[in-house]
Amino acid sequence: METTTNHVVKWVLRIGVAGTFAGHGLYALMARPSWVPYLMTLGFSSEMALKIMPVIGVIDLLVALMALFKPLRIVFLWAAVWAFLAATIRPLSGESILEFVERAALWAAPLAYLFLVGFPRTLSDLFKS
Predict the structure, then answer these.
(1) Where are the domains of the chain?
(2) For all residues of the chain together, what is the average pLDDT?
(3) Nearest alpha-carbon partner for 76 in 115, 118, 117, 114
(4) In terms of C-beta density within 10 A (0-12 exposed, 13-18 middle, 19 or more buried), how is residue 26 classed?
């Protein structure tokens, strides 16, 4: 039986992940111009970066909704990896390493959730809540 504390902590982490991805998703849907250099660091042209951002935005919004309403482990694994890569791109594009450090909670929260529910050990575990 799950303790009340564990239940509350899981909800706090789910809300944190959802808020992060909803906010970033909405910014991406608006094709935030300040994010173009990050995608250009990966080899995208500025035009392609502006075109791909809404796709990223939709994916981020789906992650936010899934974190709240269907918390599958694969969603939190994706959230941790994506947030880590998104934080890493900042110093790679010429910004301070502190930009990465400041965003540690964005990838640590989904990892913490996975620690609480158990990391997936099999492929089928990825699709369990």
Answers:
(1) 4-127
(2) 96
(3) 114
(4) middle
pTM of the model: 0.93
pLDDT of 39 higher than 90: yes
Residue 1 has pLDDT above 80, yes or no: no
> Rounded to an integer, what is the distance from CA 12 to the centroid of its chain?
15
For 120, phi then psi, to 5°, come to -65, 135
**40 contacts: CB under 8 Å, gap ≥ 6:** 46, 49, 93
Assigned token pair, 108: 């640590």
Residue count (the chain): 129
In the chain, how many H helices and how many E strands?
6, 0
pLDDT of residue 2: 79
DSSP 34-81: GGHHHHHHTT--HHHHHHHHHHHHHHHHHHHHHHHH---HHHHHHHHH
